[in-house]
């Protein structure tokens, strides 16, 4: 979270509202950011290049993820894409021998930063997938907290077929899928269908294409009903405990439950339940309450 909050200071002003034009420096942005009712939509917006994660695309995505992230108004982020391809992975033109090692390193380093940033953000991040997600695009889906996919979506890590094994996508893939399923994808490059991705845990839900927007909205609106501070604490704790042994995880989460009870919204939720009323959330973290 320190990385995310450190970068936050350098970001520009308020989020765009729905329907606002996403034009930067007289050109169409590689990502479009819109926000309404606590939900931020980030749209990968380069369908002519199959929404490839070029260095510029990654920088734009990072900026949109971090923008005003501490605001109480931001409750959930949805990442989607224009065109028939959700994301084709890295832009291979940037990985040719014409570019030097320093540039190659920069591409992979910022990609790793964006993928880890998603799990460090204090709000849930949903991938809304309608089409093909390959290589680092598949990595992006695996890195999100929730993924909703249309029935026509497919997922693959085909780098092995062009001599570039998907080693960085394998980090997210290996933490989302059973090992043998992940390795089959990595060794063969063959895609998973949406239903196979659901069966193995790469995505959360699969719906008909015409229901994708409705289902994603339903999930995001449900998230918006909860306290931002409680969700932030819960998300951070989940990713922290998942890498620990059982005893350590229980010791850590036991203390977190106590800390949760000491939050204003922790007590408000319990009191509201007892009094049979809707809670009125403050969305204040423990740091905010100390101020």
Q: What is the rounded Rg?
A: 20 Å
Ends distance? 20 Å
Apparent shape: globular
Residues in β-strands, percent: 15-25%
Number of H- or I-type helical stretches: 12
What is the H-and-E element order? HEEEEHEEHEEHEEHHEHEHHHHH
Quantity of strands, as a count: 12
Strands of the biggest beta sheet: in what spatial order?
Answer: 3-4-5-7-9-12
Q: Uncertain segments of ≥5 residues (pLDDT<50)?
A: 1-27
Helix content: 40-55%
Largest sheet: 6 strands, mixed
Structural category is alpha/beta
Overall pLDDT confidence = 90
Please, could you describe this protein's structure?
The model is unreliable at 1-27 (pLDDT under 50). This protein starts with a helix and ends with a helix. It has helices at 2-8, 55-66, 101-120, 136-143, 167-174, 179-188, 194-200, 212-224, 228-241, 246-262, 264-274, 286-290; strands at residues 23-24, 27-28, 31-36, 39-44, 76-81, 85-87, 125-129, 132-134, 146-150, 154-156, 192-193, 205-207. The strands form three sheets. Strands 3-4-5-7-9-12 form a six-stranded mixed β-sheet, sandwiched between helices. It is of the alpha/beta class and 291 residues long. It is 45% helix and 16% strand. Helix 2 packs parallel to helix 3 (101-120), helix 5 (167-174) packs antiparallel against helix 6 (179-188) and helix 9 (228-241) packs antiparallel against helix 10 (246-262).
């Amino acid at each position: 979270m320190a990385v995310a909050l450190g970068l936050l200071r350098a970001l520009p002003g308020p989020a765009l509202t729905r329907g606002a034009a996403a034009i930067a420096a007289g050109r169409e942005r590689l990502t479009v950011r819109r926000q309404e009712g606590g939900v931020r939509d980030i749209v990968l917006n380069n369908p002519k290049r199959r929404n490839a994660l070029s260095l510029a695309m990654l920088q734009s995505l990072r900026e949109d993820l971090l923008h005003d992230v501490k605001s109480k108004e931001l409750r959930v982020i949805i990442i989607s894409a224009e065109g028939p391809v959700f994301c084709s992975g890295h832009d291979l033109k940037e990985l040719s021998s014409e570019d030097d090692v320093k540039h190659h390193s920069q591409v992979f380093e910022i990609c790793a930063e964006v993928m880890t940033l998603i799990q460090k953000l204090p709000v849930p991040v949903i991938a809304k997938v309608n089409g093909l997600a390959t290589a680092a695009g598949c990595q992006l889906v695996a890195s999100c907290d929730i993924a909703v996919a249309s029935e026509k979506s497919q997922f693959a890590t085909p780098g092995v077929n062009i001599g570039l094994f998907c080693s960085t996508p394998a980090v997210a893939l290996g933490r989302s899928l059973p090992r043998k399923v992940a390795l089959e994808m990595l060794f063969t490059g063959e895609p998973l269908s949406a239903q196979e991705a659901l069966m193995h845990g790469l995505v959360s839900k699969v719906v008909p294409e015409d229901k994708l927007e409705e289902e994603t909205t339903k999930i995001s609106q449900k998230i918006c009903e909860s306290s931002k501070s409680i969700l932030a604490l819960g998300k951070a704790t989940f990713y922290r405990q998942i890498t620990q042994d059982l005893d350590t995880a229980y010791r850590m989460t036991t203390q977190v439950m106590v800390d949760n009870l000491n939050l204003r919204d922790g007590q408000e939720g319990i009191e509201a339940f007892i009094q049979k009323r809707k809670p009125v959330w403050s969305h204040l973290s423990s740091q905010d309450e100390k101020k």
